[in-house]
Amino acid sequence: MVAQCMEAICGVGIVKGIMNHPYNSLGGGANLVAAVYSHGAFVLVYTVFSATDHKRSACDSHVPVCTNGRGGVPPLRAEGGCREGFELLQEQPLRIDGGGFPAVTAPKMTEGLHTAEFMVSQCTSNSYERSIDMPMAENGGYPSGGGGGGGGDDSQPWLAPQLLAAGAQALPWDLYASQSNLFDRTMDDDILHDGSTRTFFHSGNPPPPQSESMVDDGIPEDAPAYHNFGEMAGHCRESLKMEGSARTESGSEGSDDDEEHRPARRSGKQHCSKNLFAERKRRKKLNDRLFALRALVPKITKMDRASILGDAIEYVMDLQKQVKDLQDELEETNQADGGGHDKQIGSSLHSSNSQMDVPIPNGWMDHDDSGNNPRTIAAADDNKPSSDKGQQMEPQVEVRQLEANEFFLKVLCEHKQGGFTRLMEAISSLGLEVTNASVTSYGSLVLNVLRVERRDDEVVEADRVRDSLLEVTRHPQGRSELARAVEHQQQLGFHHHLRCLHRQA
Amino acid sequence: MVAQCMEAICGVGIVKGIMNHPYNSLGGGANLVAAVYSHGAFVLVYTVFSATDHKRSACDSHVPVCTNGRGGVPPLRAEGGCREGFELLQEQPLRIDGGGFPAVTAPKMTEGLHTAEFMVSQCTSNSYERSIDMPMAENGGYPSGGGGGGGGDDSQPWLAPQLLAAGAQALPWDLYASQSNLFDRTMDDDILHDGSTRTFFHSGNPPPPQSESMVDDGIPEDAPAYHNFGEMAGHCRESLKMEGSARTESGSEGSDDDEEHRPARRSGKQHCSKNLFAERKRRKKLNDRLFALRALVPKITKMDRASILGDAIEYVMDLQKQVKDLQDELEETNQADGGGHDKQIGSSLHSSNSQMDVPIPNGWMDHDDSGNNPRTIAAADDNKPSSDKGQQMEPQVEVRQLEANEFFLKVLCEHKQGGFTRLMEAISSLGLEVTNASVTSYGSLVLNVLRVERRDDEVVEADRVRDSLLEVTRHPQGRSELARAVEHQQQLGFHHHLRCLHRQA
DNA sequence: ACAAACACGTGATGC
DNA sequence: TGCATCACGTGTTTG
């Protein structure tokens, strides 16, 4: 098992493929660079295969790399991307699950073995570039679809593929698969040409909050529901009907009768009703919070949900800036006193922090819903398809928390003068210390895979790390909302901020 | 052959050993770090296996390092070095000879199979390692094998795959096949729907920032994506289908054109589709903002939407309180002092938004807010084993010339502040450019493995390179200005710096 | 299975 | 009349 596992992990298959690959055959043009890291039972493999020889254009077309048969690992991206330098990245964190590991030995491996991620990136990508856009957004970055495409969705893109590929069955490896990177989709949609849309903010005015409805009443079963129920049923039904699948048909919806009377359909009915309530409750909670947030924000432009959030965002940035400024001021004044305030700072950092700290226990070993895990992948891109960036690709940053104080970082970006130094500085300023680094470049791209540890007891959150690195690697120019938020954050200075908080405590 | 070769190269055996190794069994204590480089037929593998978990003292004892049978290469350091943290280094430059291949370049392959070095250390004992022998030979890369697969792939990875998927699969590894599937699949899916956010890996994590629309900027464009017909099906399959088709195929609409020519249905269809996109867009915008908000909040308990909002609310309250406190504090101090800056602050504060004080909302008390329990971070223990090693080791520098303009460098030395930077500077000053770097540290030791290329036409000899590096690593004290500046910068805090810059601007 | 969380499409509503 | 926002119920995935 282990062996197989490792085989897969190590990409023997891949390598094999590579070895046989035309690139290789070209004689020396092929260049494999791989970094293998393990953390406990988890193994991460980053592989870059590139044609080192620039002269060899033939190679430039790219190749898909495959994974070995084992069911393996989905290739990251085969598409067009790899053109120039052809670069392929494979990352496969492997987790053996099982939970905590009991340890000793390998036994556990059996069950686990989920292959985690696999990523490939290509340099240029033509076709894809656009695809790049945003995927992240939604997904939070994640992983989503990455590879494939994208987008969306959440989940399946990855599994399915594998299934297909493998043929089947339970693949041992599937889990993480998705991460992949990049960019997903793009999609289409621009379709919407929204050009028109721009309107957004007209300052309208506040709609009446109707919160009432939900606002507070407590209990879930709010009345409202009912009334629509009837109607809704109607539409719902229809749709269902269409669906035709077994489910729907059940009722033979024919008349409008509601489905209600059909207990039989448990999933259909009962589940449905439960879900219905749950959903209502959830919605209510969400609304409540949204309004609560709105209540906190002084300046509200519109009552519209998006605006509420937007205002809140701005407000938070504002507050952060204020805090920082105040802090600075205070420090300055205090400085007069004498003495190393550095120390103060340090100490404050160490002290408990009230809020800031991040919990994240770590990682990817347990997926409990807490969710913290594998952290983030991000690519920054804006959606602008047009992308003014010219050819430069958006940096890809992935931060994964291995343990409370350890992170894995992956940064893929265009080579820029002083870029590495900036990266190191950023890492350092985040209170992180690099324990392992693998830097690989091909053409204008540079891939940095790092393992970092928290230096002091400072608390650093994966997201923050990611954001900072993203900012650093990216050109300040194109900013997105989030980018802006991030930038703001950075300007504020994370540490500073931390410090402030501490002080408060 | 190839496979075996790679197996050996990749250290499957070793890895396997590791997997079974006590360290591993200890649960997470084991840490493998490997860097694999290939240059033509030459493959170099550096592996470091160390116990990452400091807490686990059991591991600390260390291990002997051994070399494999093959004639072995002397272990990098078996000596004392590995003591504390147990360090294992494996280096295997592998050469495959086999003859040459046609290849184009293939520079060095000629000779045969010299296995170069191989070091293994194991913690414990056993050994498996040896099995590894290196058969590697061959291939240098050549072509063929993949032939069918490989080559072809390049181009068509996309098309073909499908075919493969469907039936066939010939290749043992089918890489391609799988790959293709992936893609296909993905495409379908992903593309189709836009994203959803959730996905990540399963564990959830922060979503990536995605950018896009930000607060103010204009509109996002979002791209919604196509829906996928296939799967989504859920309810409205039909409707989707239609839409999908329309959109997707847009061109073809001809036949079905449904909506268009159906004015009648306007509300039904056309309106519907428009609304549909609008809705998607809206959702996306909302999500984006939500994530942007989350990005600003340091402490996030869960990734769940409600939690994001909840955390944001708390954070805002926190910030408000901080601001207030700081203001008070500042005032106090200023009073004593009489300083002027306070004004600045005040003004700034007011200007930005006047409302610091916020009424606490009350609103959001939902019963269930669960979520926020701050978790404690384990972290604390930071006892680095290192540091006090009294005796510093002499740096080891190895320079190997791969080609006229390429070198492989290996530098093993004690970790020193700014050491890496100095090394980089030295390399740079020698007219060399780093194309690949792998830096690994454990305890106080740092191993740098670099591939460098001559930048200009400068001529550099290996000896000179070695000497320079030796010099640099040996005498820390002589630091360049830049190094010093950098270090200083780091100490200051990168962000701070950034901030300053921004300010200037 | 059971529950939580989402995204989705749809109908309704207000400009 | 469009257009944007919303609430809703559903299906689906995750754990």
TrEMBL record, chains A, B:
Q: Which UniProt keywords apply?
A: Membrane, Nucleus, Transcription, Transcription regulation, Transmembrane, Transmembrane helix
Biased composition of type Basic residues is found at: 263-272
Q: Provide ranges: composition bias, Polar residues.
A: 345-356
Q: What topology does the record note for this protein and the membrane?
A: Multi-pass membrane protein
User: What residue stretches are annotated with the BHLH domain?
Assistant: 270-319
What InterPro entries does UniProt report for this protein, alphabetically?
Aquaporin-like, bHLH-TF_ACT-like_plant, bHLH_dom, HLH_DNA-bd_sf, TF_AMS/ICE1/BHLH6-like
GO cellular component terms listed in the entry, alphabetical order: membrane; nucleus
Recall the GO molecular function terms of this protein's record: DNA-binding transcription factor activity; protein dimerization activity; sequence-specific DNA binding
Q: Which stretches does the entry tag as region Disordered?
A: 195-216, 240-273, 333-394
Q: Classify the main location.
A: membrane
* Top-rank taxon, per record: Eukaryota
Tell me if Transmembrane is a UniProt keyword of this record: yes
Question: Where located?
Answer: Membrane; Nucleus
Q: Which family does it belong to?
A: Belongs to the bHLH protein family.
Return the PANTHER family for the record: TRANSCRIPTION FACTOR ABORTED MICROSPORES, TRANSCRIPTION FACTOR SCREAM2-RELATED
Its protein name is BHLH domain-containing protein
Q: Which species does this protein come from?
A: Ensete ventricosum (Abyssinian banana)
